Inverse folding.
């Protein structure tokens, strides 16, 4: 029996993780979880999974729930996220919280020897060097949940990283893949949230439309697989059937395929190196699919992808700025405060106004994260 701490239980990845736990009740047990503000859903989860420890975002919700469930321990805020992440009975942390708020809990869980199943890519983008160093020092596995990275991780089994020629990360193209830049001027939030292949949380769906998601994934791949940026390519593949590939020195390419269903990579991270049946997942029928399409990526059409490569290559605190600016810009777009193309303008301004600091400590990263958020807010 594997015992799990889950950050972000009420989100898209969080609820699908719980779906896997529901499918395999004798394999997994939920000991601790965190939610944000969705208290209604949290109540249902507490009733069904009976975790011992629950963290909520706000103090008042914590007080309310404590009165309702006297046998469950409740906590709140960033301290609460950390408490869940390091909960002593858990051996795996599934980090499916949104944004760089997941950084400190991940680091603490690594220091406490937890296996990390990481969906929270903003953490790796912001502080990949700290996470990877801590994981190595504590001999803790970091198992990717993001479908592209899971695909690469699966293709790497039995292979050596030193034999990799390049990683090929596939991109669906997001909600606006058929539109020109000009046609993006006046797109609405509703249109942007309409992803053709994947059903995901709002922020990552917007990131897919701007192509920032792929940019964040390039940086994520750089850290997870210790790969220079020159050896990470992005390929448009509109069907989202090939989830990513590795090309080896001898020109062999190994890919992982499947219908777009996040439960597959989530479950693989939870069962690795074993596999379990996933009866509810739709089987891939290639004869029905017929054709797969591939197209080169245009970094002028998708400027966020270029920003991410540039920020990743320079490194230091620049990826922190990229991520924090993006988090604020996307939230502002979702609130209807800015237009779609202003997302990239704000990120560009934040990047241009920052002098990168090399090898930043956790404190420096957190300061730059806050400063960047303030800077972008001041532009709104
Ligand atoms: P959602 O927005 O659906 O869920 C986010 C979760 O985090 C919710 O439980 C939310 O709580 C909680 N949360 C948000 N902000 C805070 C905060 N400040 N403090 C505490 N809890 C908070 O996101 P997704 O599930 O889509 O994505 C989660 C992570 O996984 C992201 O990093 C994303 O990039 C990554 N990912 C997602 C994929 C997907 O298919 N969705 C695919 C690959 C990666 P509540 O709702 O209760 O307020
Ligand atoms: Mg992905």
């Amino acid at each position: 029996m594997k015992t799990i701490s889950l950050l972000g239980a009420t989100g898209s990845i969080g609820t699908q993780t719980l779906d896997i736990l529901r499918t395999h009740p004798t394999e997994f047990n939920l000991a601790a979880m965190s939610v944000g503000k969705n208290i209604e859903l949290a109540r249902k989860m507490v009733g069904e999974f009976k975790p011992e420890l629950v963290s909520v975002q706000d103090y008042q919700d914590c007080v309310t729930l404590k009165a309702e469930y006297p046998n469950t321990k409740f906590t709140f805020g960033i301290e609460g996220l950390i408490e869940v992440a390091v909960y002593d009975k858990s051996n795996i942390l599934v980090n499916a919280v949104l944004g760089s708020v997941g950084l400190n809990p991940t680091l603490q869980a690594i220091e406490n020897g937890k296996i990390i199943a990481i969906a929270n890519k903003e953490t790796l983008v912001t502080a990949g060097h700290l996470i990877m160093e801590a994981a190595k020092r504590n001999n803790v596995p970091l198992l990717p949940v993001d479908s592209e990275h899971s695909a690469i991780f699966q293709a790497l089994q039995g292979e050596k990283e030193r034999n990799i020629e390049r990683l090929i990360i596939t991109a669906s193209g997001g909600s606006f893949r058929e539109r020109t830049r000009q046609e993006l001027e006046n797109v609405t939030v509703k249109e942007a949230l309409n992803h053709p292949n994947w059903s995901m949380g709002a922020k990552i769906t917007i990131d897919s439309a701007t192509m920032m998601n792929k940019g964040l994934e390039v940086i994520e791949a750089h850290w997870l697989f210790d790969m220079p940026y020159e050896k990470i390519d992005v390929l448009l593949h509109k069907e989202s059937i090939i989830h990513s590939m590795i090309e080896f020195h001898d020109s062999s390419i190994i890919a992982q395929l499947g219908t777009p269903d996040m439960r597959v990579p989530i479950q693989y991270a939870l069962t690795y190196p074993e596999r379990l049946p996933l009866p509810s997942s739709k089987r891939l029928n290639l004869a029905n699919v017929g054709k797969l399409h591939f197209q080169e990526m245009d970094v002028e059409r998708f400027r966020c992808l270029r920003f991410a490569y540039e920020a990743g290559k320079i490194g230091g605190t620049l990826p922190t700025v990229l991520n924090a600016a993006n988090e604020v810009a996307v939230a502002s777009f979702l609130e209807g405060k800015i237009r779609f193309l202003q997302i990239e303008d704000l990120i560009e301004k934040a990047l241009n106004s920052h002098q990168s600091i090399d090898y930043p400590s956790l404190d420096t990263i957190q300061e730059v994260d806050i400063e960047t958020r303030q800077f972008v807010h001041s532009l709104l």
